[in-house]
Amino acid sequence: MAEARPNEAALPNETLYVRNLDDKIKEPRMKESLYGLFSAHGKVLQVLLMKAHRLRGQAWVTFEDVNAASLALRALDGTMHFGKAMNVQFAREKNDLIAQREPNAKPREKRKREEKKEKKEKPAQTHKAPKAGGGSSNSGPVLPHKILFLQDVPEACNDEALAMLFKQYHGFKEVRMVPGKKGLAFVEYTDDAQAAIALQGLNGFKLTPNERLKVSFAKK
Questions:
Q1: Could you give all domains of the chain from N- to C-terminal order, each with its CATH number?
Q2: pTM for the structure as a whole
Q3: Residue 21: helix, strand or coil by DSSP?
Q4: CA within 13 Å, CB half, 174
Q5: What is the pLDDT of residues 146-191, one digit of tens each?
């Protein structure tokens, strides 16, 4: 399946990544149902669903502690929910609610300011959109890069939805939509290796039965 993630398993943590949900169920009902289902195994802090219409069918459930999340995973992975078998795994990225409890955690706004400052200090070419055609060039294959170039992004899919998708891979930093160009975006990771893992896992991600996301390395 195009939605499958790399073979390496995410480390146990407080947040579970839930897939194969019935996308025909209205968000409020699905959220309430998941909350009730997962709360049977521990205190649930948050249930987050994808807002973009074409990326429904996924959710993130955050517990108070890792033990509760582990119990829920073992109990609910593969169980039927609205007629579909749920796929439950540990999420690859910590929920902000949990991250903020760590000793060296920074407030979200401070992190945003620091990321914004770092973004401004980067060379201008980092923010330029590649030429039409994506990651290829006449000079040869594009080398691995910590920035990924996305094509065929549906109009209904915003930067928040893309962030929820790509932050499942370690090292995620930010999503940047390309102004004035439909269907194009950049996703940045902390290094080339982490970007490569995300590319392997999400290139060809099935957005609809007939649409797949194109992911390649951005030109340096």
A1: 15-99 (3.30.70.330), 108-217 (3.30.70.330)
A2: 0.49
A3: coil
A4: 12
A5: 999 999 888 777 888 788 788 878 899 999 999 988 889 999 999 9
**CA torsion through residues 122, 153, 29, 167, sign:** negative
Q: Which two tokens stand for residue 172?
A: 């995620």
DSSP 94: -
Q: Dihedral through CA 95, CA 11, CA 76, CA 159, nearest 10?
A: 40
Evaluated on CA atoms 79, 86, 189, 143, the torsion sign reads: positive
Q: Environment class of residue 145 by beta-carbon count within 10 Å: exposed (0-12), middle (13-18) or buried (19+)?
A: buried
Is the distance from CB of 25 to CB of 82 less than 8 angstroms?
Answer: yes
Read off the tokens for 143. 């080398």
- For the record, the structure tokens of 2 come out as 């195009």
- The two structure tokens encoding residue 114: 């620091």
- Taking a C-beta distance cutoff of 8 angstroms, is the pair 30, 111 a contact? no
Per-residue pLDDT reduced to its tens digit, 30-89? 999 999 999 999 999 999 987 766 667 899 999 998 889 999 999 999 999 999 999 999
pLDDT tens track for 207-219:
655 678 899 999 8
Spatial distance between the Cα atoms of 10 and 8, rounded to a whole number of angstroms = 7
